[in-house]
Design a protein that fits this description.
Elements lengths: L7 H15 L7 E7 L2 E9 L4 E3 L1 H11 L11 H22 L2 H31 L20 E5 L2 E7 L1 H29 L1
Antiparallel strand pairs: 1-2, 1-5, 2-3, 4-5
Helix pairs in contact: 1-3, 1-5, 3-4, 4-5
Keywords: Membrane, Transmembrane, Transmembrane helix
Protein name: Copper chaperone NosL
Organism: Sphingobacterium psychroaquaticum
Amino acid sequence: MKNLPIKAIHRAMLVLSGLALALTLILPIWRIELDAAQYPEGLELLIYSYKLDGQVDIINGLNHYIGMKTLHADDFVEFTVLPYILAAFALAFIAVGARGNRRSMQVLFICFVVFGVVAMVDFWVWEYNYGHDLDPNAPIKVPGMAYQPPLIGFKQLLNFGAYSIPDSGGWIIVATGLILLYCVVAEWKRNKTKISI
């Protein structure tokens, strides 16, 4: 009884999750919004799996004054590997759903959790370095001030309010992770019930 195949509904959910994950290759995963009186319409930095978008040039121009490094997609190795990682997970979700093997689903869950943790730690480290490694010759220097954007949520950075939140692709990643968790728990309960009968 320990090797019961995954229920058809859970298999379908995994396949659909894999198809949804494929969309993260073309949708923005994260967004950082900046609001200030001189920019009432706001500024946004969109982070895709392979590029930066939004008002990158304006943000770079503003950051120059406080000594922050300019943002260039070529400086991030993540943009080289992340599309392949997401594509691999999309295929893995589809393959596990098609095969219906519980052990494979559990391994996929562990790998997906590890990926999520590593991705968030990497993002925090990038934000930390970006906000703390300042040019000492910057035109504007505020003693003791760092400009690290928030990992998630809101933070005031001088006269700018910075919001850091998942974008559509990020919410898809969160949703597929929750669906995978649901399937793992539901199958564990189902298997436990079968064994006890």
